[in-house]
Amino acid sequence: MVTEADRIVQQLTRPVSILPLVVLRVVLGVLLYLSMLRFVLKGWVHALYGVPSFHFTYPGFGWVVPLPTPLLTSVYLLLAVLGLCIAAGCAYRLSMGLFCLLFTYTELLDSTYYLNHYYFVSLFTFLLLWLPLHRAAALDVRRRPACARTTVPVWMLWAVQGQLALVYVFAGIAKLNPDWLLHALPLRIWLQEQLGVPGLGFWLGQGWVAYVMSWGGLLFDLTIPLWLWWRRTRPLAYLMVVGFHALTGWLFPIGMFPLLMIGSTLVFFDTRDYAVAWHWLQRCPALRLLAWNLPDAAEPPLPPCLLATLGQRLIVTLFLLGQLVIPLRHWGYAGDVLWNEAGFRFSWRVMLVEKTGSAMFVVADPVSGKWWHVYPEDMLTPQQAKQMAFQPDLIHMFAQHLARQWQAQGYPAVQVYAEVWVSLNGRPAHRLVDPTVDLAREPRRIGAPRWVLPRPPQP
Amino acid sequence: MRVLRLLLVGFALLLGGCGSPARVGPTAAPDLATARRALLTRLTDTVIVPAYSAFAEQTAALLSASEALAANPTPATLAAAQQAWHATYVAWQPLPLSRTEAVRRTQLMSAVNKYPSNTRFIEENISHDNVLSAEQVSRFGATSRGLPALAYLLFDTPPETTLAAFQADARRGQYVVALAGDLHRTATDLYNFWAADGQNYRATFIASDGAGSQLRSGLSELVNAQINALDVLVQQRLGEPLGRKTGGTVQPDLVELTGTGVALAAQIATVQAIRDLLTGGLAEYLTLHARSNPELAAQLLAQTETTRAALAAIPEPLEQALTTHPDAVATAYAESRTLLMLFKVELANVLGVTVTFGDTDGD
Fold first, then answer.
1. Distance between CA atoms of residues A361 and A211, nearest Å
2. Which of A192, A374, A422 is facing B345, going by the closest CB pair?
3. Tens-place pLDDT, residues A370-390
4. How many A-B residue pairs are in contact by the CB < 8 A criterion?
5. CB contact under 8 A, A247 and B12
6. At the topology level of CATH, where does B38-206 sit?
7. Cα–Cα distance between B181 and B111 in angstroms, integer?
8. What's the Cα-to-Cα distance from A94 to each of A7, A66, A98, A101, A431, rounded to whole Å?
9. Which residues 6+ apart lie within 8 Å of A41 measured at CB?
10. Domain ranges of chain B
C-alpha cells in the first residue's frame, strides 16, 4: 500500500534535468568571479579593512580579524579564482566550500559593511555546496566520467528556487509597513536625487511615481517567485525580473545585487524552456558551431554515485527552515525594528529605510572630574561612522571600545554616554539613545536594549 | 540606451499599474526637477558667485593695503593692512560652503587657507636675496602662502615689534605684497572658475542634478559642504579650544589664527553664510517640498540665528573669553552642535542627500 508519505517522497525524488542547476553554476561562478575582482580593483580591500583601526565585529565572532592588506587581497583573488572554478565545475565541492568559508570570513570582519546581497552569497554558496551542480558540463565529469548524470531529484531544484523565493518574499513582507505603503517612503526621498536622469528626471520628480514604484515593488517581491515558477507566466516574469533589477541597479548604488538576482533566477527555467531558447539560437548560423546536446530529463537516472544522502536532505531542510524563522525574529523583540534595528540584519530588509544619524560620545572620568567629547569621525572611517550613527548595537560596541581605550590610559572608572540623533524617512530627528545611561556598564544583549528610546510617533 | 531607459520607466509604471490603488497619498507634487534647478540657479547667482566676487574684491583691497605698508611702514599703514586682512579672512568664510568636488579639483582653495604656516620657510625666503613676486610665491607650498602666511607676518608679534620688523627689512614688506598679489590672483581665478563669462562652472553646477547611482547632485554637494563647515566649526574652531578633546582643559593656543583677533568674526561669518543660503532659497524650497518635516525650514532659520547670536555674545578675543566667559563659549558650542545636527541628520535625510560620499555598495 502506498501511503501519503510515500507519495510525498516519490514526488520529492522525481528526477528532473540537471540543466537548470548547471546553468546556475556557470552564471553564478562567473558573477562571483567578477564581484571579487571588482572588489580588489576598486581598492576596497585596503579602504574597508586596512584603513580602519577598529572593526565592528559580530557577537561571538570577535576573534575574526582582518589579515594584513596584502594577504587579504590574496584571499579576494583566491575567491575570484574559486568563482571561475565553480563556473567550470572544477573541484566543485572544494571550490564552493572554500568560497563559502572565505567569503563569510570577509563578511564577518566588520558589521558596518553588512549588505543583504553579501548575506545572500554566503547562504547561497552554502546551500549549493550540498547539491551536485558539477555532474554535467563540468571539468569534474571530464575527469571522472562515471560521475556524470543528467538528472537530479526535484527537491534539489526546489531547494534552490525556494532559497530565492525566501529572499523575495521576505523582502516583500518587510515592505508591509505604513511608511512604504501610505507615504511612499523612502522612495519618495531617494527619487529626489535622481532628477538628473536623462528622460526620466521629470517623472521621478512626480509624487505619484514614488507611490507607483513602492506598490509595484511590493507586489513584485511578494509574487515574483510564483510567476517564475508557473510555466505560462515564466518568460514575462523573467523579463520583469530583469527590468526590475536593471532599474534599481541603475538608480541606486547596489553593486552586484541586481546581476546576482538576474543570474540566479535563471534556475526557474526548465529543460523545455532551454530547448526552445536553444532552438531559437540555432537559427543564428554563428551559434550552430556551439551545438551541444542538452541533457534529456526523460533519460533514466544513473545510479548512484550521487544519490542524495539523508544527511544532505536534513542539512538542506534545516537550513531552509531556519531561514523561515530568522527574518521574523524581531517579532520577539520589543519596539519597532525600523527604529531600533533589533533583528534588522539577516532579514532581507532591502532598501527599506532612509536613516541618517549623528553621534557624539561623552567620556567622563568621575575620579578626576575630566570629560571628553569624542566624535566618531575622528576614530572611524566615514563609512563606519555613518553606519554606526543609527544602529544601537554598533553604538554600544563603539562605546565599549572607548571605555577600553580610556581604561588603558589610566581611567579605570570611565563612563561613556552617547548623544545620538536619528532621522527616519525624512522625519524630524529624535534621540535614539538615552543620554543618561552609561553604555560602558551596559552588557551586550540580543534584542532591543533598554537604553534605546522609543520610536517617535508617526505623522 | 535612451530607448532602454524609457523601457525601464515604462516597466516601472506598468508594475505600479498592476497593483496600486487608483488614488493613493496626496496629489501630485510640483515639478521637483524644475524646482531644484530653480533653487540651484538662485543660490548660485544670488549667494554663491557674489561671495566669490566679494572675496576677490577684498583681496584687491588687501593688495593695495599691503603695497602701502611695504612702501611706507607706519602704524597707520600696518593697521590698515591688518584691517584689510581681517576683512579678507571674513570674506573668505562663505567660500568653503560651496567647495564641490569640481572646485576641490582646481586646488585653488587649498592655496588660500592652509594652516599652520611653515614659518621657518617664510623666514628663510625673506632672508634670501631671491626675487619676491606673486609668481614666485605661487610656486610655494600651500603652508607658505595664503591668509595664514599673511597673518604670521602681519600679526605674529606685538604691533610695535611687527612694525619695527617691516621698517628694518624691506623684504618683509615685499613678501607681504607678493603673498597678497598671489592671493588676489587665486581669488580672481576662483571667481572666474564660477563666472558665466569665465570658465562658467556656474552652468555645470546648476545642471549637475543626480543621475543614476552617482549620488552627487549639486544640492547634495552643497549640503555636504555646509555639514563639513559646521563640523569644523564645532570640533576644531570651538570644541578644541574649549578643551572638549583634552579632558576639559581649555586650549587658547588652538584658537584659529590666534593673535589676529579674527576667530569670532570669522565664525559668525560662517554661520551667516549658511543662513544666507537658507534665506537665499533653500528654506523656501524646504517649505514647499519637505512635506515629511514641515517645521525644518523654520527650525534651520531659527537655529542659525540662535547660533549667530550665541557667538556674538562672546566678548572678543576668543582666546581670553575661553577663561573669562567659558559659559558663553560653551553655549555657542552647544548651539553650533544643534545646528550641525539639523543639517547632518534632518536636512540630509529629508533631501535624500548622501553625507560623506563613499565608493561602496549599498542595498
1. 39
2. A422
3. 999 999 999 999 999 999 999
4. 245
5. yes
6. A middle domain of Talin 1 (1.20.1420)
7. 13
8. 35, 23, 6, 10, 49
9. none
10. 38-206, 211-351
